[in-house]
Structure formats: structure tokens, C-alpha cells
Amino acid sequence: RVERVEPGAAVLDDGTRLPAGAVVVGIGARPATAWLAGSGIELGAHGEVVADRRLATSLPDVYAVGDCASFPSGRYGERLLVHHWDNALQGPRTVAVNVLGAATGREPVVYDPVPYFWSEQFGRFVQYAGHHADADRTVWRGDPAEAAWSVCWLRGSRLVALLAVGRPRDLAQGRRLIEAGTEMDAEALADPARPLKSATA
Ligand SMILES: Cc1cc2nc3c(=O)[nH]c(=O)nc-3n(C[C@H](O)[C@H](O)[C@H](O)COP(=O)(O)OP(=O)(O)OC[C@H]3O[C@@H](n4cnc5c(N)ncnc54)[C@H](O)[C@@H]3O)c2cc1C
User: Fold this and answer.
1) pLDDT at 87 over 90
2) From the CA of 67, how far away is ligand 1's center (Å)?
3) Of the candidates 75, 59, 77, which has an alpha carbon nearest to the alpha carbon of residue 113?
4) Which ligand 1 atom sits nearest the alpha carbon of residue 91?
5) Is 10 helix (H, G, I), strand (E, B) or coil?
6) What is the pTM of this model?
7) Atom of ligand 1 nearest to the CA of 32
8) Residues with beta carbon inside 6 Å of ligand 1?
9) 15, 42, 141, 186: which could form a disulfide with 50 (CB 3.0–4.6 Å)?
10) What is the maximal distance between C-alpha atoms in the chain?
11) Residue 88 C-alpha to ligand 1 middle, in angstroms?
12) Closest-CA residue to 75 (of 117, 128, 129, 31)
């Protein structure tokens, strides 16, 4: 186990000093759902509540949102377990509509977001939208050694995800292009001076 990090080294609890120029800390999260055992609510491989595309659980009239719940993403064709603030904000809107809809006989609405998160790292504003597991092409906008740059992931010619560092306009425009499934011109996309929304095919 790591006991502490010192300038230039990570010190283990047996006294070993491992020289380290940089230390990357990865902290995971696990839903605290043990109390649901035996309730009839289906739990998934990560201990999360398994919701359907309406965010309904396996029990009637019980819905699940946020970090504790996975849902099938129609957009990305796989079940997503999203641990980000925006997902905890958007999911309840779908659930509210579906709870009220069930009472008034309205068609249920489907939850199919473009996942989004932001963070601040070392004074840089970092934003990500989409999901790039199935992407087949990466396009850089700008030099990652500089303060501001973006990277786009394409599947075919469609933008599926985007990471923007210090380029919030790229994120705002990219998020809409991902949502709409717009076909992009990869060459135009690689020019950071060109607005992302004008790099369509
Ligand atoms: C260190 C850290 C940094 C993060 N940074 C970012 C970021 O930069 N950007 C971003 O988008 N997201 C970030 N996140 C993720 C974001 O905070 C979560 O996605 C979001 O808070 C999830 O909201 P939630 O309501 O689903 O769950 P939570 O906020 O975890 O709320 C669940 C609540 O349920 C309570 N609870 C649990 N079990 C029970 C029980 N049995 N009975 C009653 N209450 C219970 C818990 O105490 C808690 O208050 C970060 C998370 C962490 C931990």
C-alpha cells in the first residue's frame, strides 16, 4: 500500500521508496446498494440498479437515477453507468415525466442523453461530452502542449465524443452535433481556428 507521496517518490507502508516523477491517482466508485438485496430490484454486475430506457427498475413504480443506476443507451447501443453530475441532473427529469405520465396515461419518455462532465484540473477547464468506446477515428484540434485544445472522436463521419480543454465553445457546439448525429468533415474539424459547427460534411 502507498503510505504517502513525497516530492519525487511514492513511499510504501513497508518503507520502500519508489522514485516517481508523476503520480496518477485513480479512485473508483461503487453504488451502495447492498440494502436492496432481496427487494426484487435487479442489480447489475457493478452492484448498480438496472433501469430500463424509461429509468424504471424491475419493480413496478420504482425508478432509479444518478450514480447508482445503469440504463440502456439507444444512442450508443450499450448499457451505460454514468458517474457524473449532469446525469444525476437529467435523469430525474425523465422520471418526473414518466411518473406523471403513468398517472395520466401519457406515453413514457425515453432517457437517451449524450453524457457530459466538466472538471477543473490545474487551472484548466476540462469538459467531455459523448462516449467514445466505439469510435474509429481521433481528430485533434490544436496542440495538447498548449493551454487550449480539443480532441474529437468520430465513428464513420459522425462525431460521437469530444474532450475540450479551455475551449468551451467547442464543447457547446460539439455536444449539439453529437446529439444530432451530424456528419462531419474530418479535415475541417482538425482546424482549431474554424468553428466546430462549420466543420460539417
Ligand atoms: C471526489 C469527486 C469529484 C467529482 N467531480 C465531478 C466533476 O468534476 N464533474 C462531474 O460531472 N461529476 C463529478 N463527480 C460525480 C458527481 O458528484 C456524481 O455523479 C453525483 O453527485 C451523483 O449524484 P447522485 O445524486 O446520483 O448520488 P450522490 O450525490 O452520491 O447522492 C446519493 C445520496 O444517497 C445517500 N444514501 C446512500 N445510501 C443511502 C441509504 N441506504 N439511505 C439513505 N440515503 C442513502 C448518500 O449519502 C448520498 O447523499 C465527482 C464525484 C466525486 C466523489
Assistant:
1) yes
2) 6
3) 75
4) 26
5) strand
6) 0.87
7) 38
8) 32, 35, 66-67, 83-86, 88, 117-119
9) 42
10) 66
11) 8
12) 129
- C-alpha cell read off for 182: 451530424
Mean pLDDT of the chain: 95
Q: Domain-by-domain residue ranges, the chain?
A: 1-27, 34-104, 116-198
Query: Topology of 116-198 in CATH?
Result: Enolase-like; domain 1 (3.30.390)
Per residue in 25-49, pLDDT (tens digit) is 888 888 999 999 999 999 999 999 9
Q: How far is the CA of 118 from the centre of ligand 1 (A)?
A: 15
- Matching residue, cell 466508485: 29
Span 152-162, average pLDDT:
96
Candidates 3.40.50.880, 3.30.70.330, 3.50.50.60, 2.60.120.10; correct CATH number of 34-104? 3.50.50.60
Query: d(Cα 23, Cα 6) in Å, to the nearest integer?
Result: 10
Percent of the chain, pLDDT > 90?
92
Mean pLDDT of 177-182: 95
Contact call for residues 56 and 71 (beta carbons, < 8 A): no
Task: Give the three cell numbers for residue 37.
Answer: 438485496
| Cell numbers placing 194 | 474554424
Span 135-143, mean pLDDT? Answer: 96
Please give the single-letter amino acid code of residue 125: F
3-state secondary structure of 121: strand
